From TrEMBL:
<dbReference type="InterPro" id="IPR001666">
    <property type="entry name" value="PI_transfer"/>
</dbReference>
<dbReference type="Pfam" id="PF02121">
    <property type="entry name" value="IP_trans"/>
</dbReference>
<feature type="domain" description="Phosphatidylinositol transfer protein N-terminal">
    <location>
        <begin position="3"/>
        <end position="226"/>
    </location>
</feature>
<dbReference type="GO" id="GO:0071944">
    <property type="term" value="C:cell periphery"/>
</dbReference>
<dbReference type="GO" id="GO:0005737">
    <property type="term" value="C:cytoplasm"/>
</dbReference>
<dbReference type="InterPro" id="IPR055261">
    <property type="entry name" value="PI_transfer_N"/>
</dbReference>
<protein>
    <recommendedName>
        <fullName>Phosphatidylinositol transfer protein N-terminal domain-containing protein</fullName>
    </recommendedName>
</protein>
<dbReference type="GO" id="GO:0008526">
    <property type="term" value="F:phosphatidylinositol transfer activity"/>
</dbReference>
<dbReference type="InterPro" id="IPR023393">
    <property type="entry name" value="START-like_dom_sf"/>
</dbReference>
Length: 233
């Protein structure tokens, strides 16, 4: 997906990709990336700053079945416009071998649960919006798709209750843009973008299963290194 969305003007820079050890996450892979997708930013946001200022710095700690991503979004915009100094976007993921029926896998407090809004995203859904097309949409029809290597699929209505194995990625998205006048609008735009990104990345994960199924971690790391070098070039 990074390669599909990268060209001479926009795309992803992989600055770090290395193993890590953490007291909470244990062992995993740390990445630090810079995203430049100025053309995909909402037109109203571009009125606050030049297009070349709209970038995102992302740190990620991937330690399956848990991972955490922290983004300093529009960080260059912060530097050019001091007004944009308070912003946070954090994504915490827990993967579970179930059909999405587990509750509070992130162990939220009562106060957090009261504020939480739950959305169920189905990779077999055909619904599309602006962000789906902006990110680039996977055109695979999962109601007809069947993996040649694993025999998994197709995903007809209610597939979550019939498929085995099945897995859910529980994502906790915490976002705060305390800007008077447009903070809520910015939060909603970013949530919509993340929603489309979650759908597209997991659709690709299943749609490309015959390309990666059975790979060793060493093979995956080699592909990541090759991809990172290609993107940076």
């Amino acid at each position: 997906m990074q390669q599909q969305n990268s060209n001479g003007d926009e795309g992803v820079d992989v600055l770090e990709n290395r193993p890590f050890e953490h007291d909470v996450f244990g062992r995993g892979q740390y990445t630090f990336k810079v995203y430049r997708f100025q053309s995909k930013a909402p037109a109203w946001l571009k009125t606050f700053a030049p297009a070349d200022a709209l970038v995102m710095h992302e740190e990620a700690w991937n330690s399956y079945p848990r991972c955490k991503t922290v983004s300093n979004t529009f960080i260059d915009l912060f530097l050019q416009c001091p007004y944009f100094t308070k912003f946070s976007l954090t994504i915490e993921t827990v993967h579970k071998a179930d059909n999405g029926r587990s509750d509070n896998v992130h162990n939220l407090s009562e106060e957090q649960l009261a504020a939480r809004q739950v959305e169920v995203l189905d990779i077999a859904s055909t619904a599309r919006d602006y962000w789906s097309y902006a990110i680039a949409s996977n055109n695979v029809d999962f109601s007809k798709f069947k993996s040649k290597r694993t025999g998994r699929g197709p995903l007809s209505e209610g597939w979550q209750d019939r498929c085995n194995p099945v897995m859910t990625a529980y994502k906790l998205v915490t976002i705060d843009a305390p800007y008077w006048g447009f903070g809520y609008r910015l939060e909603q735009a970013l949530l919509a973008g993340e929603r489309a990104l979650f759908l597209e990345s997991h659709r690709n994960c299943f749609g490309w299963i015959d390309e990666w199924f059975g790979m060793t971690m060493q093979q995956i790391r080699e592909i990541e290194q090759q991809s990172g070098s290609s993107l940076n070039e």
